[in-house]
Amino acid sequence: MSGESATAIHKGQVDLLDFIDWTGVECLNQSTTHSLPNAIKQGYREDEGLHLESDADEQLLLYIPFTQVIKLYSFVIKGPEDEGPKTVKLFSNKEHMGFSNVNDYPPSDTAVLSPENLKGKPVLLKYVKFQNVRSLTIFIEDNQTDSEITKVQKILLIGSTGFRGSSSREKKDDQKGCFNCKKPGHFIAECPELQKDKPKNGRFLKDSFENKFKKIPMTTWDELDNE
């Protein structure tokens, strides 16, 4: 990991590169000789001699699916000060977008990149808009000087996978409570105290339960009729 990437990523966040589903990644209007892997893949994006470049005009449309649901906090897009991206629109979980319909949908967030951003300063996103992201569409609408070509040197997506802390199974185990010994972590059928009364054939002794709980008196219909 480069020093720049380490600075951009805070505690609890990761570079989401390892969670990209490369089989579904697309980039519309990219140059055949300067394609998306140059800007986003490990090893390529650190090479200053490589970059992503637009083809017919200044716009680029990137589609990035993930192998699991992620949370996106921020991103880094580096580029030259003249041909680097300017207006960047991000869409969460929007499938099959193209240049013909990208303006038909409101973006999840929009960023206007500054010279500092193009040098590697992270862009913070509206976090609530990127909580359960399965795919991300990035629309680079223009560049810094209205040049016919846009160049991107590096793309870094920063977030988390949402699987920190205890698993749901562990949380359920923590919520267990035994009615016999009143201790957490197990139900009555798993109670260690009752397991001591268990015979060798694997069945609980009936008396062990009857001695633990008092029977509640019940009134029968015959008793009600005799009143």
From TrEMBL:
GO function terms (MF aspect): nucleic acid binding; zinc ion binding
Sequence similarity: Belongs to the PITHD1 family.
Superkingdom as given in the UniProt entry: Eukaryota
Pfam families: PITH, zf-CCHC
Segments forming domain CCHC-type: 178-193
Protein name, per record: CCHC-type domain-containing protein
PITH domain ranges (all copies): 5-177
Gene3D superfamilies: PITH domain, Zinc finger, CCHC-type
This protein's UniProt keywords: Metal-binding, Zinc, Zinc-finger
GO (cellular component) term, any one: cytoplasm
Xref: InterPro entries: Galactose-bd-like_sf, PITH1-like, PITH_dom, PITH_dom_sf, Znf_CCHC, Znf_CCHC_sf
Keyword Transmembrane: no
